[in-house]
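Appendix B. Chain record.
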Amino acid sequence: MAAIPLRGQWLVGILLLLALLLLRFQDPTIVQKLRFLQFDLFQQMAPRADAKAPVVIVDIDDESLREVGQWPWPRTVLADLVDKLTAAGIVTIGFDVTFPESDRTAPGWLFDALDSGMTAQFDPEMMSGPSNDAIFAEAMRKSRVVLGMSGTNRVGALGDKPAETPLVKIGGDPAPFVPSSRGIVTNLAELDEAAAGRGAFSLLREADGILRRVPTLIKVDEKIYPALSIEVLRVALGEPSFAIRTNKFGIDSLIVKRNRIPTNTDGTLWVHYQARDPSIYVSAADVLSGAVPAGKLKDRIALVGTSAEGLDDLVSTPMGAGVAGVEIHWQILGSIFSGDFLTRARYADAVEIGVVLIVGLLIIIIMMWLRARWTALLLLGLLAALAGLAWYAFRAHGLLFDATYPGIATILLYTAQVYVNHYTSERQRRQVSDAFGRYVSPVLVQRLVKDATRLQLGGETKDMTILFCDIRGFTQISERFKGNPQGLTNLINRFLTPLSEEVLNHHGTIDKYIGDCIMAFWNAPVDDPNHARNACAAALEMFAALDRLNSELGQEVRQTLDPDRLPKAYRRLKELTDAEAEERLQLAATLRSGAGEGQPYAQYALGKAYRDGLLGQRNTNEAVNLFSAAAAQGFAPAQRNLGERLARGDGVAPDAIMALHWLTLASRDGLAAAEEVRIELMQRMSVADIAAAERRARAWRPSSLRHAVTSINMGIGINTGECVVGNMGSRVRFDYSVLGDAVNVAARIESQSSNYGVSIVISETTYAQADDFAVLEIDRIIVKGKSEPIRIFALLGSPAVAQTPLFLDLAWRHEALLHAYRERQWDEALQHIDTCTQLWPSLEPLYDLYRDRIENFLVDPPSADWDGVFVATKK
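C-alpha cells predicted for this chain:
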C-alpha cells in the first residue's frame, strides 16, 4: 500500500476529533438532551408491545372527587374501597399515596379539637368506637395491601418508621451504590403494621422534565427500601423477600421470584413505555358504587392513584404529557410481566466515545483515498450504519445507544476532510490473488485475476451453501497432549489437510479454520449452480478421508488410554475392606488388564497396589517392575518413584546415576517432589556422575507414544440460504468471508450431529437442491437462537446409495416412524424403531433417542398442542 501523505487536513481532522471526544467525555446538558431526544423518538416509533399485564389502575379522578368529596378521603371510605376491591378478586392493592398522619375526619380527631364542655354533649359511644385508621387497618389485614412512601431531601421522617422488606444480597452490599435520601415520608405505624408491604413511589425527572428513569430502590439511614412496583410484585407473587444482585461496578439487577429486573448501576430502571391504554383505568367512584363490570378486577393487581389535575401527580413521559404518576408503576409492571426491558449498558458511554474515535479515524484516513463523487455515499453510509445499529440494538435487544452525537461528529469531520484516489487496479488484482490464494484452488484464483467482475469487493448477496465441520471430543484429545503442543498441532494438521483437499476438489472455498473446525462455502467467489450437491458430495468424501486417517492412526498406535476408568478403579481399591474380597478381585483384574495392554497409569497404579499390600502380601519386586515399565513410557510419577528407590536402594540396588536420570525426567514434567530429591541427590554425587546422568536424560525417549490418538470422530452441518459474501475486515488486513443467518443455522445444525448420533446433518433448503442423495429426515427442530422450526436431515450416502434396495426399504420405514411419532402412535413408532435399527445399525443412536423420547411420553404425555417440534436448549 502506498504511503498516505501527511497533509494539513490530517492535523485539522485530528484536532477536531480530539475536541469532539473531549466534549462527549464531559457530556454537558445539551449533549444529554440530544441523546434523550433519540431515545424518546425510538420509544415513540416502537413502543413496547402490549403485555396484557394483569394490572388495573383505580383512579381517584375528578369524577370520584365530585362524588366522594375532596382529597384526602376519610379512611373509612378507603377501607370500603379496599373491601370492595378485595371482594372483586383483586390479588394485591398498591397505594400510590402515603398516610403519614391520623385521619382528620375521624370523630376522635374532631373531639380532640373541641373543648371538654362541647365534647360532653356527644354520645359516649361515638367517643369510644374504633378510629377511622383502625377501620382502614382492619380492611388492609383482610387483603394484601402495599402502602406507598417517598424519599425527601428534608432531614427526618414524616410518619412513623416503616418496616423493612427482607432483602437478599447477591454478590456484595448494594448500599454504596443506592442514592441516599435525607428523609422519608411514610405511613402511620398502625397502618404500616397492617400492610403486607411498603414501597417508594419516588420518580426521577431528567433535566428537560421528562420521566425516563425510575429508582427501583431508595436508601434512608443506610436502610434500603424497594420501589412501589417492585414491592407490589413481591407481595402479589407471595415472596417473603426480594434480591439485589451486585457486581464490582454497582447494582446489576433485582430479582423477585423468577423475575430478573435489570437496572443501572445506581439501581434506576429505564422505563420501556407501552402505548397509553385508557382501558386500564377504573374510576374509584365506580368501585365504591359497585358499577365496575364483573370480572374486570378478578385476579388482577390494583394500583390506586390519581389523575386529577388538582392533586399535582401528573408527569411528562416520552409518550406525552399529563400522564398520571401511578401509570408509571403500571408501565414498570408491564415490562416485568413481559420481560421486555430497556437497558443502557454501563459501557455504553465508552462504546459511544469509541465509535466517535473509530468513525473519526475512518473518515480521516479512508477519505484520503476516495474521489469526490464517492464521499457523499460514504457519509450517508456511515450515518445510516450509526442509526441502523442504534435502532437494531433498541428493537432487537432493548439496548439504548446514542447515534446522534456520533452522527453529528461524523458530519463535522466529513466537512473538514479532503479527497484522495482509489488504489490502482493492479493493486486490487494483487490483493485478490493474495486473499484467495490460501483458500481456493489456483485455477479459481487465476479466473478471478483475469475477470475481476466476478467478485464484488465489499460484499454481495448470493444463495450459498455453508459447511461446518468439527472434531467431536476435541477437549479430551487436547488433554492427552498436555505438555506436547507440537504433537497436537501435527495431529490437527493431519486432520485438516485431507479434509480441506476434498473441499477444494468439489469447488468449495475454505472460509477459515477455527481451531479444530473447518468453515467452508460454495457458490463464491465463482458461481456454482450445483453448490448444494457439491457440498454434500464433499462431506461424504471428507468422511472417507477421515476413515483413511483413522486407519493410519490405528496402525501407528497399539494401545489406547482410558483417562477415567483406571483411576476410579484404583481409588475404589484403596477404599475396600477385607470383607469386600470379590470386588477387590474385579478391580485387580481391571488394573492387570490395563497394565497388560501397556497403559502406563495402570502399570503405576498396580505397582502401588503391590507395594502397599492392597492385593495381599506386599510384593516389592513386582511393584518395581511395574514402576519401571510405566517410567519407560514417560509416566512422570513412576519416574519419580523409581528415581527415589534407586537413590535409597529401596527394593533395588542403589544406582545414583540412574536415580538422577529418572528424577531429572520427572522434574521436567513439573513434579516438585522429584526436583527436591534431585537437588539433594546431586549434592552427594561427583561432577562426572551428574554429567553422565544428564547425558542419559537428554538421550532418553519414551518407549511408546504416550499422547497417541487412535481415532478421530467429527460432525458436519450443511445449510443453504442467502448470505452476504465479500472482503471483510480492515483496509490493512481482510478476509474473504460470508455472513448471514444461513451461516448461523449451519453452525447450529452441525452441533446437532452429535445430539442425534449422525455424522452429517443438512437443512431442508440444502436437501431441496440435493434430493437425489441418500437422505433421511431426522426431526423438526427449533435451533438455539431461533424461533421458527426447521426440518433437518441425515445425509447417509451418494445418489447411488439412495437407489439401493436396503436404503429404499429403510426410507419408507423411517418415514412411517416419524409419522407415527408425530401422530402419537407410540406402539407403532417403537415397532418401526426396532426394524430400522436392524436395517441400518449405524443409526442406532438416533433411534435410541426416539425410543427414549417415546418412553418418556408414555409416562408423561405431551401437551395437547404438541406438534412434534423439538426445541434445542444448547448450541
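Further analysis of this model is presented in Appendix C.
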